[in-house]
Write the structure tokens for this entry.
Amino acid sequence: MKLTFLGTGTGIPQTRAQSGLIMEVITGGQKKPLLFDCGCGILQRLYESGYDHRDIDTIFLTHLHLDHVSDLLGLLKANWLVGLTGTHIYGPVGTEEWFDKLMVLYPYLSDRLDVQITELTGGTVLMVDDCIIRTAPGIHSVTTIGYRVECAGRIAVYTGDTEPCYSLTELAQGAHVLVHECAFPLGFEVENHTTPDMFAKHISKHPLNVERLYLTHLYPHMQGHEQEAIDYIRKVFPGEVYIAEDLMQIDV
Ligand SMILES: [Zn+2]
Ligand SMILES: [Zn+2]
């Protein structure tokens, strides 16, 4: 499995694009990119990454905040422009209603797209393209789910936006890679997101058995505090800790 961070930022403009991640899996002997979240800037990053938008027909949404979905319609339109209309979108409860409302605003697309939507709750287990996908709920200001993807014995987990929480820690146990949000720096007072001290406190109580941790969804407030975040979490986490960057690729 290979991960490509398309966007590692948030709702405030900065050098990082908003949220988006590709997990490249092997299905039927072929490489296939699964897209997780599609915030503003992800369509451009997709191009820069070398992936072809025409190969994206399976998309997983953690939640429906704009920094995770802004470029989704643009991606569907890009594929329609080259004659590809079939897309399967997995997302939390509410995804279907949200998409139907978008289609009311863009009836010309509604007639041309063939979008299948599957709504998932935390605790779902399903097979997608030879991968076992498991979900768990996060703690955020809206309904949100994290994803565990297991393919050919390799496991990656993506949290989306969340406070550190037991359900996602459990989802991640035994994973080779965990991509966890870390929106704000050490000591920042916040709810619904994660800071290094919130994360360290949580895994002190719920030890995390993961090989590598990648921190993403960084607000501009994190600039200059990246190494501090790594050092703080390393005090209580025995695995490797990295700050994700746009267009960074890692093998899982
Ligand atoms: Zn959010
Ligand atoms: Zn977000």
User: Anything to note?
Assistant: The CA atoms of residues 33 and 107 lie 28 Å apart. Residues 63, 65, 140, 161 surround zinc ion (ligand 1) (CB under 6 Å). The chain has a mean pLDDT of 97.
